[in-house]
Specification:
This protein is an alpha/beta fold and 234 residues long. Helix content is 24%, strand content 29%.
Length: 234
């Protein structure tokens, strides 16, 4: 089988306000998607930022639209055959309405929540032509491409595992706001397994499952940084 490739897609940035960063200061964060080139076609993880007056006032986004962002990554709307949203908040599903008829893989619990909660933009969630393939847990959606539930930021959050010959890539979406936080949870899991004394931070229950895939790189929706295992060499 042809080797799978993963390309980053730049959807712009937004300003996370101080009350959401935990640092007492605002933080400018990228909004990133990822294209998976598979022998059967292109899969897109996340579709960029939607918005309304409330969202724009709160997050001050600088958007790159889906067509333009895909073009910069060497692809077109018509090239995308499948879509995965790590979850359905405005900054991950904004381009879904531009991809009618494509299967959008989402956890059933996430779609149910998105249709009931005012934390989601309904015009993105149920736009005309938007077609969901609802999942109940871990699923191999294409050969070598696995969706793994990683709840936390959203109850139905999911990550994408892409198995490559030179090492697995995990697209972890907003499982963590940045690579440093992911690294901290990996180390917390390791410390607990090695019997380090309490107190210790508690890592998400799904961390061991992601590590089972022996990832060479883990990438994120709101951080250009990349997590790599301690054994990485250059």
């Amino acid at each position: 089988m042809t080797e799978l490739s993963v390309r980053r897609v730049d959807f712009g940035y937004f300003v996370r306000p101080a009350e959401e960063t935990g640092t007492g200061a605002p933080r400018v964060e990228p909004c990133l998607g990822y294209l998976v080139e598979h022998p059967d076609g292109l899969l897109l993880m996340d579709t960029g930022m939607a918005g309304d007056a409330g969202v724009d006032a709160h997050y001050r986004p600088s958007r790159i639209g889906l067509r333009e962002a895909l073009g910069a990554a060497g692809a077109r709307l018509d090239d995308v055959r499948w879509v995965v949203n790590c979850h359905l908040h405005f900054d991950h599903s904004g381009g879904n309405p531009l991809l009618p008829g494509r299967p959008i893989f989402t956890q059933r619990t996430e779609l149910d929540t998105a249709r009931r909660s005012d934390q989601y933009l309904r015009e993105c969630v149920d736009a005309p032509g938007v077609t969901y393939t609802e999942l109940d847990g871990e699923t191999e959606v294409l050969p070598g491409v696995v969706i793994v539930p990683t709840p936390g930021h959203a109850a139905g959050h999911q990550s994408l595992v892409v198995r490559r010959k030179d090492g697995t890539i995990v697209v972890a979406g907003q499982s963590h706001d940045h690579a440093t936080a992911f690294a901290g949870d990996v180390l917390a899991h390791r410390a607990a397994g090695e019997g380090a004394g309490q107190p210790l931070p508690v890592a998400p229950a799904w961390i061991p499952r992601l590590l089972d895939f022996d990832p060479a790189r883990v990438v994120f929706a709101h951080d250009n940084s990349v997590w790599e295992p301690r054994e990485a060499t250059w």
